[in-house]
Design goal:
Elements: H1 2-8, H2 11-18, H3 26-31, E1 33-35, E2 38-40, H4 42-49, H5 52-62, E3 65-67, E4 72-73, H6 76-82, H7 86-93, H8 95-104, E5 106-113, E6 116-121, H9 124-127, H10 137-144, H11 147-150, H12 153-191, H13 203-238, E7 242-245, E8 249-252, H14 253-257, H15 259-277, H16 279-285, H17 305-325, H18 334-345, H19 347-370, H20 381-393, H21 399-407, H22 411-442, H23 445-460, H24 466-476, E9 495-500, E10 511-513, H25 537-559, H26 564-584
Parallel strand pairs: 3-10
Antiparallel strand pairs: 1-2, 3-4, 5-6, 6-9, 7-8
Helix pairs in contact: 1-2, 1-4, 2-5, 4-5, 5-8, 7-8, 7-10, 10-23, 12-13, 12-17, 12-23, 13-15, 15-17, 18-23, 19-20, 19-22
C-alpha cells in the first residue's frame, strides 16, 4: 500500500496507508519492505523516483511525536539507524527536505515561563553514529556548501556544543604547537639569519640561537609534519580514498578537500629543499668544518650567491605558507571568520580587474612602442611596459607629462586613453563589482563562517582522544529522558534549552496525544482532525468539495428531490438548450 502511494506521489495516500500500521511498527512500514531476499526502503525509493511529496509525508510522519497513556513514540532513531547517511542523501537529492528533517528534531513547548519557552533539541544522532563514534554530519554539511543548512537552530546548537566542549581544546593545543614552530621559524630565518645583521657584535650568541632554531625547524617541525602527512596518506591509500587527477596522477582525497593539508605538503617540500641548501650543513662539510675563518667572517658569506638565493627563496615560500595557515585561528571568532571569508569570496573580482589592467598595459605599451618617437621612457617594448606600469601606480615623474605633451603629440592621446581606461574605468568597475559581490553574500556571511567552522570540526574531531570523547558522551546523558514540560518525562537523546517566547510562535501542542488502548499492535486512532492544518491546498479543496456534495445531498433528500446538485445541473442544461434554440431561431 505504501509503495502504491509512492508511485502516485500522494501525501494523502501515504497518510491513509500508514494509518493502518500498528503503532509499534509504523516507522518500520515506511523504512523496510522485504522483496524476496532484498530489503527496500520506501523512503529512499520515493527519493529515487523524485516523489518528493510522498517523501515529505513519510519524513513528517516519522518525526511526529505521538503518545498514549503508557509511552511516547518517535521515529528519529529508526530513521538514522536505517539510513545513517540520510542528511547527505537529502542534501544531494532533496535540499528542501533537509529543513523538514531538522525541524522534526526540535520540540517547542506551547507554554511560556517568564517570557521564555522550553525547547528540546534531539541531537543524539547528529553527535554520534549508531556505533557510538563520531557522526559525519559536519563533514556532510561542509561538502553540501549550503550556508542555510548550518544556520538552522539545531545545527548551530550542535556545532557550538561539539566545538566548545570537545574540539576547541584539541584545536588550541595543536595550534599552540604550530604557532611555536612559526615563531621559531621567524626567529631563525628572519631575525638571527646571517643577512639580517642582528647581533653582529656578538657572533657566537647569534650562531648559537641560529643553530638551536634550525635544529627545531628540521627536527621538530619537519619531522612532525612528515609523520602526520605520511600517516594520513597511508590511511587514504588503505581505504582507497584516492582522487585521480587527469586520470593519470593518484592523489589522496584529503589533500584536495582540505587546503590546510595541501599547505602542509608545500611546507614539507620547502623544508626539504631548505635542508638540502642549509648553509650550516655546507659549512660543516667543508674542510675543517669551521663556522668562521681567521678574520671572523661567517662561513655563510663564503657560499655562492646562487646557493643563498635558492635557500632564502625557499625559506620565504615556507614562511608564506606558514603565515597563510595561521588563518585557521580566525575560526576562534565567528566575526573574524566571517570577515576572512568575505575577503576570500571577493578575490575572483580582483582577479578580473587585474586581467583587465594587464591587457590595458600590454595593449597601450605595444601601441606606444610602435609609434615613431624618441622618448627614452618609451623606447622599446620593455621600457614602454615599465613606464605605463609606473603611470598606473602613480610612480611616474609628473614633470615628464608636460614634455610628452609638447614633444610627442601623437603619443600623448594614447597615454591619456590608457590612463582613463585603466585608472578610472577599471578601478571604478572593480569598486562596483566588490560592492555587488559583498552585498550578494552579506546575508549569508555568518552562514559561510559557520560552514567554515563545520569544516574545522569535521577535520579536527577525529584527532580528539577516545577518552575525552567517551567523557563528553557521558556528560551529555543522551540515554536519559528529558522533560517536555515540568513533570512530563519525555524521550531520551536530546538537550533542553530556553529561548525567547517571541522567537517562535507556537499555537498548538506538537505532541499528538491519544487515549484508549495502549497495545502496540493497535493502530493509532483517526488523526484527520489533527492533521487538518498540515493538508496541502489540493487536499483542502477536495475536502471542501466532498463536504459541499454531502450537504447538497442532505438538502435534496429533505426536499424530496434526488439531488439539488443534479437538479441544478439539469435545469442549467435545459436553460442552455432553450437559449441555444432561441438563438438559432
Amino acid at each position: 500500500v505504501v509503495m502504491q502511494a509512492i508511485n502516485a506521489n500522494s501525501a494523502k495516500m501515504i497518510r491513509e496507508a500508514v494509518a493502518l500500521a500498528p503503532r509499534g511498527q509504523r516507522a518500520h512500514w515506511v523504512l523496510f519492505v522485504q522483496v524476496g531476499t532484498e530489503s527496500i526502503s520506501p523512503f529512499y525509493n520515493a527519493l529515487d523516483r523524485g516523489s518528493l511529496e510522498a517523501a515529505s509525508a513519510i519524513l513528517k510522519d516519522l518525526l511526529i511525536i505521538r503518545a498514549d497513556r503508557d509511552k511516547y513514540y518517535y521515529g528519529a532513531d529508526e530513521l538514522f539507524s536505517r539510513h545513517p547517511d540520510v542528511v547527505w542523501r537529502l542534501a544531494k537529492d532533496a535540499p528542501v527536505l533537509v529543513f523538514e528533517l531538522f525541524d522534526g528534531l526540535v520540540w517547542r513547548s506551547r507554554f511560556t515561563e517568564g517570557g521564555k519557552r522550553r525547547v528540546n533539541y534531539y541531537i543524539k544522532n547528529l553527535v554520534q553514529d549508531t556505533e557510538g563514534g563520531f557522526s559525519p554530519i559536519f563533514k556532510v554539511l561542509s561538502k553540501a556548501c549550503n550556508p542555510k543548512f548550518v544556520c538552522h537552530p539545531i545545527i548551530e546548537l550542535t556545532a557550538d556544543l561539539v566545538w566548545g566542549r570537545l574540539v576547541y581544546r584539541t584545536f588550541l593545543i595543536r595550534k599552540t604547537w604550530f604557532f611555536f614552530n612559526f615563531v621559531v621559524f621567524v626567529v631563525g630565518q628572519c631575525v638571527f639569519a646571517g643577512h639580517a645583521h642582528v647581533f653582529d657584535h656578538d657572533i657566537p650568541l647569534r650562531m648559537s640561537v641560529l643553530i638551536f632554531c634550525r635544529c627545531l625547524i628540521y627536527g621538530g617541525c619537519l619531522s612532525s609534519l612528515l609523520f602526520h602527512t605520511t600517516r594520513r596518506c597511508v590511511r587514504s591509500w588503505k581505504t582507497k580514498e584516492i582522487t585521480w587527477v587527469r586520470r593519470v596522477l593518484p592523489v589522496p582525497a584529503f589533500l584536495l578537500e582540505e587546503w590546510q593539508e595541501a599547505f602542509n605538503v608545500v611546507v614539507i617540500i620547502a623544508l626539504l629543499v631548505m635542508l638540502g641548501f642549509e648553509p650550516l650543513l655546507w659549512c660543516l662539510a667543508q674542510e675543517g668544518g669551521a663556522m668562521f675563518d681567521n678574520d671572523g667572517e661567517s662561513c655563510e658569506e663564503t657560499l655562492s650567491h646562487e646557493h643563498m638565493l635558492g635557500y632564502t627563496t625557499t625559506s620565504g615560500l615556507a614562511l608564506f605558507a606558514y603565515a597563510t595557515m595561521m588563518l585557521d585561528l580566525a575560526t576562534l571568532s565567528m566575526r573574524v571568520s566571517a570577515f576572512v571569508l568575505s575577503c576570500w569570496h571577493v578575490i575572483p573580482e580582483v582577479f578580473l580587474y587585474l586581467i583587465g589592467v594587464v591587457f590595458s598595459i600590454i595593449g597601450s605599451s605595444l601601441s606606444i612602442a610602435a609609434l615613431q618617437q624618441e622618448h627614452h621612457d618609451f623606447h622599446g617594448v620593455g621600457a614602454s611596459l615599465l613606464s605605463t606600469m609606473k603611470m598606473l601606480a602613480g610612480m611616474y615623474n609628473k614633470g615628464l607629462y608636460s614634455s610628452l605633451h609638447q614633444h610627442e603629440a601623437f603619443m600623448f592621446p594614447l597615454i591619456y586613453a590608457f590612463y582613463v581606461v585603466a585608472a578610472v574605468f577599471l578601478t571604478n568597475m572593480l569598486v562596483a563589482q566588490l560592492i555587488s559581490a559583498y552585498a550578494k553574500m552579506h546575508k549569508d556571511m555568518v552562514g559561510y563562517a559557520r560552514l567554515n567552522r563545520a569544516e574545522m570540526i569535521s577535520t579536527w574531531q577525529p584527532m580528539v582522544p577516545a577518552r575525552r570523547w567517551k567523557k563528553f558522551l557521558e556528560a551529555q546523558k543522551f540515554e536519559d529522558p528529558i522533560e517536555f514540560n515540568e513533570g512530563d518525562i519525555g524521550l531520551p537523546g536530546g538537550v533542553t534549552t530556553w529561548e525567547l517566547a517571541t522567537a517562535k510562535v507556537v499555537t498548538h501542542d506538537q505532541i499528538r496525544r491519544h487515549g484508549g488502548s495502549t497495545q502496540e499492535d493497535n493502530p493509532w486512532p483517526d488523526e484527520q482532525d489533527i492533521i487538518l492544518g498540515e493538508l496541502t491546498e489540493e487536499d483542502k479543496i477536495e475536502r471542501i468539495q466532498v463536504r459541499i456534495q454531502t450537504v447538497m445531498k442532505e438538502f435534496g433528500k429533505a426536499l424530496g428531490a434526488p439531488s439539488l446538485m443534479h437538479c441544478g445541473s439539469v435545469r442549467s442544461g435545459s436553460v442552455v438548450d432553450e437559449q441555444s434554440s432561441a438563438d438559432s431561431g
